[in-house]
Amino acid sequence: MRDVMFAAAVALLAEAVFAQATPVGAWKTIDDETKKEKSLVRISETGGVLSGKVEKLLDPAKQDARCDKCSDARKDQPVLGMTIIEGVKKNADEAYWDGGSILDPNNGKTYKVRLTPKDDGKVLEVRGFIGPFFRNQTWVRVE
User: Fold this and answer.
1) pLDDT tens, 2-54?
2) Tens-digit pLDDT profile for residues 63-74
3) Per-domain residue ranges for the chain?
4) Dist. CA 30–CA 33, nearest whole Å
5) Which CATH number fits domain 2-141: 2.60.40.790, 2.40.128.520, 1.10.760.10, 3.40.50.2300?
6) What digits encode the pLDDT tens for the residues 104-124?
7) Nearest to 95 by CA among 79, 112, 114, 78
């Protein structure tokens, strides 16, 4: 009986650890240049596809910020509540999620994106690509 309880506890623990090693959850975004905290982005999954929405802006002066440099349907829309990550899926062979895009509301550019959980899912490496060029940000899990 103890062996069964131990196995069940190990299985639950492994499931909890695995659940945290995904991009799904709330993340504090950190500017890669200034190292300042910018926002909270919630990444959710629907049908195996991830999307991310700006849930909170951390700079009180930017609460009414709009994506004035966007060139798609998000042009001049509020950044707060905006979907900035779309179409991301788990890479079958690797420990990262990719295939979608991420928008930088500061410059209006859309990048191909790769999301890689690190440090047992406590941080998320966010890599945006345009052609052979890329930039990384490290986001910190808040939940």
Assistant:
1) 554 444 343 434 444 444 589 999 999 998 788 889 999 999 999 999 999 99
2) 999 999 999 999
3) 2-141
4) 9
5) 2.40.128.520
6) 999 999 999 999 999 999 999
7) 114
